[in-house]
Design brief:
The complex is a heterodimer of chains A (about 190) and B (about 250). By secondary structure, chain A is mainly α. Chain A is built from ten helices and two strands. Chain A has a two-stranded parallel sheet. The longest helix of chain A has 18 residues. About 5% of the residues of chain A have low confidence. In chain B, strands 1, 2, 3, 4, 5, 6, 7 and 8 form an eight-stranded mixed beta sheet that branches. The chains are: A mainly alpha (about 190), B alpha+beta (about 250).
Chain lengths: ~190, ~250
C-alpha cells in the first residue's frame, strides 16, 4: 500500500513538473488555450510558453498524421512528442514524404523536448520556409538562450538579437507579447 | 512566568518575521544585474542617404545613484498576544549597481541599432564620419514604494493570518542631451526626456522574493522603454534634419 502511494506521488510530481516532453523549462500550449488564458489573465508571467497552432489528444494525433495539412501534422507530431511517443513520430517522418522544413522543425522539437538545445538549434537553423517562420525563429532564440545560460562567457547580445529577429517576424499581438515576455525573463533570470 | 516570556519572544519573532525587511528587498534587487536591452519595433528604413554619422555617448555627468537604496519610510507593529498587525513602507531607488552594462556603452549600442533600423542615414563608429553625434546622459532615475502588511491572530486552538505585499507604482525618468556637429560646428541640438509610471504589482506568488525580483525587473524595463522612446525621437529628429538638408524634403 505504502509503495503504491509513493509510486503514485512520484508519477504525479513528474507529470506536474514536465511541461513539454521531458523539458521542464517550457510549457506547451495550443494557440487557442493561450489566447483564452491571456484574455482571462491566467497566464503565468514567469513561465516560458511554447505556443503551437494546434494540439491534439493521443488518439487524434495518430489519426491526424496523414491529413496532409502541414499545421495539423505539426500539431500531431508535437502532441505525440509531448506524450513521449518520439519513436512513432520518427517512424512517421521516415515513411512519409513531408516538406523538409516541416520535418526539420518536428525533429528539432524532438531534441528541444529532451533539452538537447545544441542539436535542436542545428535543425531549426536549417528551416527557411515562411509558414512557421515565427515559431522556428522563437525556438532558435530559446535554444540560444539556454545554450548561453549554460555557457560561462554568456553572450546575451546574441540572444537578444535572436529574439529581435523573432519579434520582427511576429504578425499579431500574441506573438509580440510572447517575445516581450521572453525578453523580460531573459533580463530577469540570468 | 518563564513560559509566558518564551511565548512572547516566539510571538515577536513571528510578527517581525512576517514583515519584509528592507535588507531582503535590497538583496533581491541587487542579487543579479539587469540588462537594458529592449525590442526595437520602429519602421525599418532600408534606403539610406549617403551620409555617415559617428556616435559617442558620455555618462560623465549623469545623475544616477551608485548603489541601489532601500529606505524604510514607515513601519509599525501591534504585537498584542491574541491579535497582531504589521505594516511597513519602503522607498526603493535604483542604482547603477543593478545594471549589467556600462551605461554609456549600453545607450550607444541601442542608439546605433536604432539608427541601423530606422535612420535614413548611416551610423559609423569611426571618427572620420561626415557628422558627429555627441550624446550626453543627464538623468536616469527609477524609484517607487514597496509596502508590506499583514495580521495574525490566535485563540487557544484557533488561529488565522493574512499578508499582502504591493510593489509600485514606480516612476522612471530618463533625460539626454545631444549635439550634432559637422566640422566642429553644432548644426542641431536638443534635450529629450521620457517618463513611465508602472502599474502596482500584486502578484499571487508563493513567496515575496519573486514579487521583489519582478518589481526590480519592471523598474529596469521602464528605463529600457524610456531609452527606446528617446532613441526613436532622436533618430526621428535626425531623419528630418538629413531629409531636409540633403534632399530638400521633409520626411
Amino acid at each position: 500500500m505504502k509503495t503504491i502511494l509513493i509510486v503514485t506521488l512520484i508519477i504525479l510530481c513528474a507529470s506536474a513538473s514536465a511541461q513539454f516532453g521531458e523539458n521542464t523549462d517550457y510549457k506547451l500550449i495550443s494557440l487557442e488555450d493561450y489566447v483564452d488564458k491571456q484574455s482571462r489573465g491566467r497566464l503565468n508571467p514567469m513561465k516560458r510558453y511554447l505556443v503551437v497552432p494546434k494540439l491534439f489528444n493521443k488518439r487524434d494525433s495518430f489519426d491526424n498524421l496523414h491529413t496532409g495539412d502541414p499545421e495539423t501534422i505539426l500539431g500531431s507530431c508535437i502532441s505525440l512528442i509531448d506524450y513521449g511517443r518520439e519513436e512513432d513520430v520518427q517512424e512517421f517522418l521516415d515513411k512519409e514524404k513531408i516538406e523538409v522544413d516541416l520535418a526539420n522543425l518536428v525533429k528539432g522539437c524532438r531534441y528541444f523536448a529532451s533539452s538537447d538545445y545544441a542539436k535542436a538549434l542545428e535543425l531549426f537553423n536549417s528551416c527557411s520556409g515562411e509558414q512557421h517562420a515565427f515559431l522556428y525563429q522563437l525556438l532558435k532564440a530559446d535554444c540560444c538562450y539556454q545554450i548561453e545560460k549554460a555557457n560561462e562567457s554568456q553572450d546575451w547580445q546574441m540572444v537578444f538579437r535572436a529574439y529581435q529577429h523573432a519579434y520582427d517576424l511576429a504578425i499579431d499581438s500574441y506573438q509580440k507579447e510572447l517575445v516581450k515576455n521572453r525578453i523580460k525573463l531573459t533580463r530577469y533570470l540570468p | 512566568m518563564r513560559n509566558l516570556f518564551l511565548l512572547i519572544i516566539a510571538h515577536m519573532m513571528l510578527v517581525l518575521g512576517g514583515c519584509t525587511s528592507s535588507g531582503k528587498i535590497q538583496k533581491c534587487f541587487t542579487e543579479r544585474p539587469h540588462h537594458l536591452y529592449y525590442l526595437h519595433d520602429s519602421k525599418v528604413v532600408p534606403d539610406k542617404l549617403p551620409v555617415n554619422v559617428s556616435v559617442s555617448v558620455s555618462d560623465q555627468q549623469i545623475h544616477i545613484p551608485e548603489y541601489t537604496e532601500i529606505k524604510r519610510t514607515k513601519g509599525w507593529v501591534i504585537p498584542l498576544l491574541v491579535f497582531n498587525m504589521w505594516k511597513s513602507e519602503n522607498e526603493c531607488t535604483l542604482g547603477s549597481d543593478m545594471l549589467d552594462q556600462n551605461l554609456g556603452s549600453a545607450v550607444c549600442h541601442s542608439l546605433c541599432r536604432e539608427i541601423e533600423r530606422s535612420g535614413n542615414f548611416l551610423a559609423d563608429t569611426l571618427r572620420e564620419a561626415d557628422y558627429h553625434l555627441e550624446v550626453q546622459l543627464n538623468r536616469i532615475e527609477s524609484s517607487g514604494p514597496y509596502s508590506s502588511s499583514g495580521f495574525f491572530y490566535f485563540l487557544l486552538f484557533f488561529y488565522g493570518f493574512g499578508y499582502s505585499d504591493i510593489a509600485g507604482p514606480a516612476i522612471s525618468d530618463v533625460e539626454i542631451s545631444y549635439e550634432l556637429r559637422k566640422g566642429g560646428v553644432t548644426v542641431l541640438e536638443n534635450t529629450l526626456s521620457a517618463q513611465i509610471i508602472t502599474d502596482p504589482i500584486n502578484l499571487r506568488v508563493s513567496n515575496n522574493t519573486q514579487l521583489i525580483r519582478h518589481y526590480a525587473t519592471s523598474m529596469t524595463e521602464c528605463i529600457a522603454h524610456n531609452l527606446k522612446q528617446i532613441n526613436e525621437d532622436l533618430v526621428g529628429e535626425l531623419n528630418t534634419y538629413f531629409g531636409y538638408n540633403l534632399t530638400g524634403q521633409l520626411n
